Amino acid sequence: MECSRRSSSRDVSLKELSRRLAEFAEDRGWAQYHSPRNLLLALVGEVGELSEIFQWKGEVEKGLPNWSSEEKEHLEEEVSDVLLYLVQLADVCGLDLGQAALSKILKNAKKYPLNNN
Ligand SMILES: Nc1ccn([C@H]2C[C@H](O)[C@@H](COP(=O)(O)OP(=O)(O)OP(=O)(O)O)O2)c(=O)n1
User: Fold this and answer.
1) How does it associate, per the subunit comment (predicted)?
2) Which residues does ligand 1 sit against, CB inside 6 Å?
3) Which residue in 46, 50, 66, 86 has a CA-CA distance of 20 to 30 Å to 72?
4) ipTM of this complex > 0.90?
């Protein structure tokens, strides 16, 4: 089922994104181009596009209270492009991105213990 705009606020798993992206690429014959290196370069390109949105704006308030809905929609698109290429990169490298990220959070907690003083 393809839907371009949000239909509900249900949780979306990384595995669902991964499956939908694999179908998308397969249907278009693009999987052959989705090598780790190509996906990494595409990811970096999208990070650049995301950065452009903030470029020259000065500091931006959390929640983006002064942004127009068009600006927020543009931001949603670029943030999504970064995530979607990252998910595909993890996939073609044979990684479980969700598990890897959870493990990293645990490692971070050990590296930076609570400072109870
Ligand atoms: N070979 C490709 C090409 C595109 N996409 C998907 C992942 C991204 O979500 C989006 C990127 O599409 P574009 O290259 O058209 O980039 P933009 O959406 O940023 O468009 P533009 O660069 O015109 O702003 O499409 C993909 O998975 N594999």
Assistant:
1) Homotetramer.
2) 25, 30, 33, 49, 81, 84-85
3) 86
4) yes
Contact 21, 88 (CB under 8 A): yes
Among 2.40.440.10, 1.10.10.10, 3.40.50.300, 1.10.287.1080, what is the CATH number of 14-57+68-111?
Answer: 1.10.287.1080
Burial of 51 (0-12, 13-18, 19+ CB in 10 A): exposed
Ligand 1 centroid distance, CA of 85 (Å) = 9
Residue 21 makes CB contacts below 8 A (sequence gap 6+) with: 84, 87, 88, 91
Proportion of the chain in helix, strand, coil states, percent, rounded to 5: 65, 0, 35
Amino acid at 103: S
